[in-house]
Amino acid sequence: MDIIRNRSMAKYSRKELIARVLWGFAQPLFRYSPRIFFGWRRFLLRLFGAIVGKYVNIYNSAIIYMPWNLEIGDWSAIGEHAYIYNLGKIKIGEKVTVSQRAHLCAGTHDYSDPVMPLLKPSIVIESQAWVAADAFVGPGVTIGEGSVVGARSVVVKDVEPWVVVAGNPARLIKKRK
Description:
Number of strands: 19
Mean pLDDT: 97
Structural class: alpha/beta
Order of helices and strands: HHHEEEEEEEEEEEEEEEEEEE
CATH class: Mainly Beta
Radius of gyration: 17 Å
Shape: flat
Largest sheet: 7 strands, mixed
Distance between the termini: 48 Å
Oligomer: single chain
């Protein structure tokens, strides 16, 4: 592994670096807002470039790494202590629940290259899906419409619409109606 070359690579644009610093200063306004101040948190996220639908509930303990890489549809929710590591875009549809402590990870490294360059593959969670507690959704994954990802599951491949998956790695449990 070539750590010196990895650390010398530009991973973010100047604009992104400035935005990250500003978001760092604004995060206490998000984090320490009263639990029920969903509108305030929607406002802050929009201020930093997120596309946030109507009636979205995002809890104050959730971590949104880069708001400008988040799109979330109407009536969706991100639960307590969820980790939205959105180096790449994360698009969440309408009426989606991302439960407590779920981890959406839209960032990785190319391990086949000794420099291990940063990769930012997007994640898509289609409408009416549910990512249950403590589940991990990896880079480049699409969770199909109406699907359920079971608690503590590890999803590293796309999930078909209207199915239930669970386990590590996540496997098909059954189809939904």
